[in-house]
Predict the structure.
Amino acid sequence: MAGLNSAVLVLNKSWVAVHVASVRRAMSLLYRGLAQVVHPEDFTTYDFSSWTEASEHALENYIRTVNRKILIPQIIILPGYNGFVKRRAAFNRRTIFERDKYRCQYCGSRLPSSELTLDHVVPRSRGGKSAWDNIVVACVKCNTRKGNSLPGEAGMRLLKKPSKPKWPATSGIRVSRGLYASWERFLSQAYWDTELSE
C-alpha cells in the first residue's frame, strides 16, 4: 500500500506544476476522467483506458487490481483546470528576489540572479533575524562592502525599506529534490521555492 501514498506531480492544463498528490488521489482523478497521465519520457498524455493498456507489460512500479496491472504515474495533468493553488507569500529566495525586482537594494543595479545575494540589513551576528523586514537583495560587491556593518556604518543606504509582499505567491509547491527525473522539466527552479528559516 506504500505505492498508493507515493508522490505524483500535478500540472494544470498549461503544463505548470500546481500540486503534489498521492498516487491514490491521482488514480481517482484519472479513473473519473478529470486527469490524464503524462508519460515520464516523451510527455505523451494518456486517459485511464489507454494508460491501463500501456501498463500491461509493466515489470515494476505498478499497482495490481483484480484483473490488471496499472503503472504508477509520476506526473498527471488536469486538462480542465488552469488555475493555481493560492498560497501565502512564501519566505524564500524567489519571493524576495521578485519583491526586490532582482535589483540590488543598495546600488540599484539590476543583475542576473547568479550575481545577486541575500543580505541581512542588521547582520545576524549583531542580532538581526531572517525576516521580511531584515533581508534584501544585494549584489556581491555591495554585500562584501557592507560586510558585518549596518548600512549607515558602511556609508550605504537602502533604496526602500524591506517588508512582506502584499501579493500572494501562486506556486511554491514543496517537493523533495530529485524525486523523479521527469519532474525536473517542471521544477527546475525548486531551489528558489525552498522556504527559508525565519
Observations:
- The domain at 93-154 is CATH 1.10.30.50 (DNA Binding (I), subunit A).
